[in-house]
Amino acid sequence: MTSIHTISLFDGDKPWSPLDWTSSDDRVRGGSSYSELACSPFSPTAIFKGNLDIETLGGAGFASQRTTGEGRNWDLSKYDGMVLDIEKADEMQYTLILKGELLPKSPNGREQSTISWEYDFKADKEGEKVYVQWEEFKATYRGREKKDAKPLDLKHVKRISLMMRSFFGTQKGDFSLSIRSISTFHKSADACEYHDNPNETSMSRPGNQPLDDEDGRRTLIGQDQGWFGWLFRLYTSNIY
């Protein structure tokens, strides 16, 4: 069987803290959307919430929370992806974003654009764990997909963000997403089994399910034991 192991980035061993997150909303472009990440080291759940306004910018808009600090660095190269443990969700579509590069701010104080690695998701209203493998993240630059982007440097992930966006005017208004944790995960085969393909899940066969042998004959599991097995081999040798 394949086992999945998780390492917590936020919550778990590293409790939620409001000092780790800050707003990055469309107000920097003249919009009216706003967001917050309501959290506390004493609460197991953080709530990403706010209001997405699409009227001010003519159908567009975004509200997001990102990690603070310019010198942060997560080495995620030993893992297979990320997992969001969602406690409760609305019917809105959200985006998980990673950045591997941050540039100095421009003279007007605004951040310079760099490539973002994005994954869009809509969680079950009653909560679920959303697993995202690295290859499922899509490279974008200024909101447009960039298919010729270099792979994300997983040894140097600089920023993690959660975003609510309009998706070309298809959603707006209040939003709320309750999150138990943000973690990385890696998959491994159980020590008692070996698999060439790490994604393969072992399955046990019923005791008398037939298997094909190299001659194309059908051999039943367990029939090579006792007198019945001897008679079976004698019978099949006369047939073939």
TrEMBL record:
Record-annotated NADH:ubiquinone oxidoreductase intermediate-associated protein domain positions: 17-179
Extract the ranges annotated as region (Disordered): 193-216
Q: Which GO terms describe its molecular function?
A: unfolded protein binding
SUPFAM superfamilies found in the cross-reference section = Galactose-binding domain-like (SSF49785)
Task: Please cite one Gene Ontology biological process associated with this protein.
Answer: NADH dehydrogenase complex assembly
Query: In which family does this protein belong, per the annotation?
Result: Belongs to the CIA30 family.
The name on file for this protein is NADH:ubiquinone oxidoreductase intermediate-associated protein 30 domain-containing protein
**Phylogenetic classification of the source organism:** Eukaryota, Fungi, Dikarya, Ascomycota, Pezizomycotina
